[in-house]
Write a structure and sequence with these properties.
This protein is about 50% helix and about 0% strand. It is mainly α and about 120 residues long. The longest helix is centred in the middle third of the chain and has 30 residues, at about 45-75.
């Protein structure tokens, strides 16, 4: 017996066992309502739609209100980050404009190396 046929037989055994197990557990689900239990009337479709769609929609609106309304009341912009033109660097240095101007205005005349402002750099 080769290895591939042994693996195929093992896979067939696993799939067959799982199928029999699932079908065995699904049998009681088709049972009728036991005697003595109530038989409630069917739930109206409108109520089902309200429960399955209305409640998640209400929760979404409440989260939206708690997140966006304080900023709107303070007068902040709630536009997406890509719509803004000003860059923000949270926790960064405040003097970046000075660093950028020093980096671009340095000259390489007379053998001077340009002013480095930091960061990783390497030459070979």
């Amino acid at each position: 017996m080769t290895t591939s046929s042994r693996a195929l037989r093992r896979a067939a055994l696993i799939v067959g066992s799982a199928t029999i197990l699932i079908l065995g557990y699904a049998g009681p689900a088709a049972a009728d309502i036991p005697d003595g239990w109530s038989n409630p009337p069917p739930v109206p479709v409108l109520r089902t739609v309200l429960v399955l769609i209305g409640i998640p929609l209400l929760i979404t609106l409440l989260i939206f209100a708690f997140v966006y309304l304080p900023g709107i009341v303070r007068g902040e912009s709630v536009a997406p980050a890509g719509a803004r033109t000003d860059d923000q660097w949270f926790g960064g240095r405040r003097d970046t404009a000075e660093l950028e101007s020093a980096n671009t205005s340095s000259s390489t005349e007379g053998g001077e190396a340009p002013h480095e402002t930091g960061g990783a750099g390497g030459t070979w």
